[in-house]
Amino acid sequence: MSKTRSNAVAQAEAYYDSPDADSFYFTIWGGEDIHIGMYESDDEAIVPASHRNDETLASMLKGVTKDSVVLDIGAGYGGAARHLAKTRGCKVICVNISETQNRLNRELNRKAGLDGRIEVLHGDFENIPVEPDSVDIVWSQDAILHSGNRPRVLDEVQRVLKPGGQFIFTDPMQADDCPEGVLQPILDRIHLETLGSFGFYEKELSARGFEKLEVIDMTHQLRRHYWRVGQELEANYERLTKGVSTDYLDNMLKGLERWVDGAEKGWLAWGVMHYRLAK
């Protein structure tokens, strides 16, 4: 497969390597876990809700042992990888586009004594830098949306998974019945032309020989998470300006409001998708 990548992935690399984004996501979004949280209440803190995402996905996996190899694509700061390595004893390979995040991931792995179980690779999920048929599980949390060529990402997932391997992921998506054009302000901000959907993933994965094990629609958590992040950003605005530009923070507040509005209007979707590749 050609080693080209979409413009959206290049944009994501520049964005997440920026000092503004790095400071904001680690400070506000969830610390070691920079994905959507699973909240038990509207006022729950972001960090435990985000970690519950790790726990929930891990509990759904079948047959994980110390000999299993899990590939986390779009691994961020590696919170999920450390959870899996600690609780299941498996090996985890993190592939992530931001070398800024990768450096901290490696440091946190060393501090946790897990650097022998977790490998961190700089790369993107349109060109996954691992061998074919080499991993037991592909894991991803809220990262695939950043691809401008999601079918290619799914081709890569199929390529690296062993026959019978599992693919478990979450992704911010549009609703299957989303009206055309209404999400353009969100798409423009994150340099995308489209979002995926539950229907998109089911169709594309089925075509690649995957069977659906479980899909859980948790769209209410998307709305809640973006709302909570907005709350925390407003509460910590002045403190954040010491390390993050006000332009970045103001644009982030506007972007968060658009995600909340889109979720409230039924235009967006989010949930857990668990599939198995045919043997």
How would you describe this structure to a colleague?
By secondary structure, the chain is α/β, with parallel strands linked by helices. Helices cover 46% and strands 19% of the residues. The protein starts with 6 loop residues before the first helix and ends with a strand. Strands 3-2-1-4-5-9-7 form a seven-stranded mixed sheet, with helices on both faces. A two-stranded antiparallel ribbon has the order 6-8. It has eleven helices and nine strands. The longest helix has 19 residues, at 246-264.
Q: pLDDT under 50 segments (min length 5)? A: none
Largest sheet: 7 strands, mixed
Radius of gyration: 18 Å
Beta-strand proportion: 15-25%
How many strand segments?
Answer: 9
Class per helix and strand makeup: alpha/beta
Mean pLDDT: 93
The total of helices stands at: 11
Report helical residue fraction: 40-55%
Give the overall silhouette.
globular
Strand order of the largest sheet: 3-2-1-4-5-9-7
> How are helices and strands ordered from N to C?
HHHEHEHEEHEEHHEHHHEE
N-to-C CA distance: 23 Å
Short description, anyone?
It is built from eleven helices and nine strands. With 279 residues, it is an alpha/beta fold.
Topology:
Elements: H1 7-17, H2 19-29, H3 46-60, E1 69-73, H4 79-88, E2 91-96, H5 99-111, E3 118-122, E4 135-141, H6 150-160, E5 161-170, E6 173-174, H7 184-189, H8 198-207, E7 210-217, H9 219-235, H10 237-240, H11 246-264, E8 268-269, E9 271-277
Parallel strand pairs: 1-2, 1-4, 2-3, 4-5
Antiparallel strand pairs: 5-9, 6-8, 7-9
